[in-house]
Amino acid sequence: MGRLPAAWPDTDLDVDVVVIGGGACGMVAALRAAAGGLTVALFEKSTQHGCNSQVSSGSLAAAGTRWQRAAGIDDSPQRQADDILRESGDESTRPLVEAVCGVAPSILDWLDDDLGHTLELGGDMRRHGMSVPRLHTDPARHGGIALVRTLRAAIAANGAIAFVDNTPGVDLLCDEDGVVVGAVVLQNGEEAEVRSRAVVLASDGFAANTELLAAYLPEAVDDVFQGVSTSTGDALAWAIELGAATRNMTSFLGSGMVVPGYATRINPSLPFWGAMLVGLDGRRFVDEHEHGYSSLATVLRALPRRRAVLVWDEGMHAASLQSELMRESERAGAFRRYDDTASLCAALGVEHTAFAETVAGFVGHDEVSGASRPLAAPFYAAPLTSGILATQGGLDIDTTGRVLRADGTVIEGLFAGGGTAVGISGPSSRGYSSGNGLLSALGLGWIIGNHLAGRG
Predict the structure, then answer these.
(1) Cα(312)–Cα(329) distance, rounded to whole angstroms?
(2) Are 284 and 325 in contact (CB under 8 A)?
(3) pLDDT in tens, 368-413
(4) Domain CATH code at residue 436
(5) Into how many domains does the chain fold?
(6) Based on the domain organization, do 302 and 448 belong to the same domain?
(7) What local confidence, expressed as pLDDT, does residue 456 receive?
């Protein structure tokens, strides 16, 4: 542990808290613990390969915020929790959902006021299942990478936290009573034991682990992978060996907005602004407002070749480019502009006669303005397929992030959040509400860090 600050006392403990995983959850937990006077060692497998927070849209779902109040929107954490649970259908997670929704407004205030991560309410970012607008974002909409940069800068400026890169966790340390007293990490090819009062497992889930994916999520095995290669679920095995229970292992964050051949994503607001979805037969196959982007992936899996086409026009194109996801797709050439229906169908393999009839009879509804209007040439279009971004199942935890056994008892000294812990989206990809991933990651990081520091 030569890379830890020399000022820390040489006792039986190397640090107060060990955090495994340097994504949003791990960094927030480290920062909150350090703010309470604790020393923290945060071990990250690879910043080069990134974390799921970094490749996310960066949209922060919170209710009852000052940004909503300024916009005249009446909302509350309880209303947000009720919306999430209505979509997930999993009432057993209500205490956890209410816990993370309850702290979300404080997290946004902290990010903006204390860390300088300027936020605004995305009033145009309408999503299925949200009764009012509650996604918050940086004004430039740079996505998750901007959030991760903010958190890493705060970590680097904090002398009580050692951020150790390229050092994956490999195991947990326990005493004779089964209490977790530290972790084993792999640094420069050698194993090192790090002793602590608590260990926080905050690594990504298992979406990049083909064996676990086939066991729990066989329907997603052939989906386009949109997560990070470090999502191998290592920490699950360590905790399970200690008797930890898992929950909702069949749940994951999918996306029906992935462009095949480019592995980029289209702005998920487009269907809610009046864009149209058709199959390769040229016919609409779903109400565009009926699904969030995760549950839409479930619908696409049942289509021939898992293919659909999203069509929009100039009236919504400029606004769509405010999203970094969309800008990435534009840079990659993942969508095109077409002067008429014939050229669009020829390029994308869509049956033209049926498509022309479908366009002529389509009237799109914009949930932001409330206006309804047909699509007009020139058109923009992108082929879509189903993708998987991250798993949503994991270790069972209580509302303070403590890891639980199957009998409901606590594994002392062990906490979990981020992709390692059970999410808040229920047992399947259909239950995911936009923003649930970061809400759970940031919320549990906040709760765990404050709890360890004696403030929660």
Answers:
(1) 15
(2) no
(3) 899 999 999 999 999 999 999 999 999 999 999 999 999 999 999 9
(4) 3.50.50.60
(5) 2
(6) no
(7) 62
Name the residue range of residue 96's domain.
17-206+392-452
Is 239 domain-assigned?
A: no
Provide the residue type at 392 as one letter.
Answer: Q
- Angle, CA of 38, 39 and 40, to the nearest 5°: 115
CATH label of the domain that carries residue 374: 3.90.700.10
CA 187 from centroid of its chain's CA atoms = 28
Residue type, 120: E
Closest CA to 209 of 226, 230, 232: 232
Beta carbons within 8 Å of 145's beta carbon, 6+ residues apart: 54, 55, 58, 324
Express each pLDDT in 50-68 by its tens digit: 899 998 989 999 999 999 9
Q: pTM here?
A: 0.94
One domain for residues 361 and 427 = no
What is the H or E stretch that residue 144 is in?
helix 144-156
Percent of the chain whose pLDDT exceeds 70: 97
Please report whether residue 4 resides in a domain: no
Do 118 and 56 share a structural domain? yes
Is residue 238, in this structure, part of any structural domain at all? Answer: no
For helices 24-35 and 436-452, what crossing angle results, to 10°? 30
Question: What whole-number distance in Å separates Cα of residue 195 and Cα of residue 180?
Answer: 9
Pair 169, 313 in one domain: no
The closest of 336, 349, 361, 254 to 300, measured between CA atoms, is 254
Angle among Cα 26, 30, 32 to the nearest 5 degrees reads 120
Does some domain include residue 180? yes
Q: Of 371, 388, 405, which residue sits at a domain end?
A: 388
Rounded to an integer, the average pLDDT of 323-351 is 97
Angle separating helix axes 77-88 and 94-109, nearest 10 degrees: 130
**Strand 17-20 versus strand 364-365 pairing type:** unpaired
Position 2 scores a pLDDT of: 29
Strands (E), 72-146: 120-121, 135-137
What average pLDDT score do residues 88-114 get?
A: 98
Whether 26 and 171 map to the same domain: the answer is yes
